[in-house]
Amino acid sequence: VVILSLLMYPLLRSLALQLHSAVTGSYVSGTHSVAFINCLNEQIAKDIARAIMDKKLAAYVSILPKSSALYFWKGELEESTEILLLVKTRTSKIGELSNYVRSIHPFEIPEIISLPIDQGNPLYLKWIEESVPRD
């Protein structure tokens, strides 16, 4: 019984937080995330952003202008330019988003990382919630 309780704890905690949020109207930290995805050029960035939106994996994708990047690749220091996507979505969609982007991205190992949103404009966070379907 103790082991079952421990295994169920994350699920029960999540349900309790969702219930609390629904009743009080408060935001549950980490419910939404911002994902960062690097792209080789603007056209690839636009194509990936559109594909993400078409699949309803995000509420919003920002395409940031070209920037310089330094990184190690296969033991060598590389320098290039890239376009960065900032993807606003539900945290529960990050795994699906990552898998999908890896399947369409031209890089061998694309940068796909995410950070949970701790706080923000409640109306904006609610809009993300309404824009991205639940699992």
Walk me through this protein's architecture.
With 135 residues, this protein is an alpha+beta fold. The protein folds into two domains: 1-26; 31-131, Alpha-Beta Plaits (2-Layer Sandwich). It is built from four helices and four strands. It has a four-stranded antiparallel sheet with strand order 2-3-1-4. The longest helix has 23 residues, at 2-24. The mean pLDDT is 89.
Q: What key phrases describe this protein's structure?
A:
4 helices, Alpha-Beta Plaits, four-stranded antiparallel sheet, 2 domains, single chain, alpha+beta, 4 strands, 135 residues, 42% helix
Question: What are the SSEs and their pairings?
Answer:
Elements: H1 2-24, E1 32-39, H2 42-54, E2 60-73, E3 76-90, H3 94-104, E4 112-116, H4 122-131
Antiparallel strand pairs: 1-3, 1-4, 2-3
The H-and-E topology, N to C, reads as: HEHEEHEH
Bin the helical content.
40-55%
Q: Strands across the major sheet, in which order?
A: 2-3-1-4
Please give the radius of gyration in angstroms. 18 Å
CATH class of the largest domain: Alpha Beta
Mean of all residue-level pLDDT scores: 89
Structural domains: how many: 2
Structural class: alpha+beta
Q: What summary fits the major beta sheet? A: 4 strands, antiparallel
Architecture (CATH level 2) name of the largest domain: 2-Layer Sandwich
The CATH topology of the largest domain is Alpha-Beta Plaits
Number of strands: 4
Please give the count of helices: 4
Give the low-pLDDT segments: none
Strand content: 25-35%
Overall 3D form: elongated
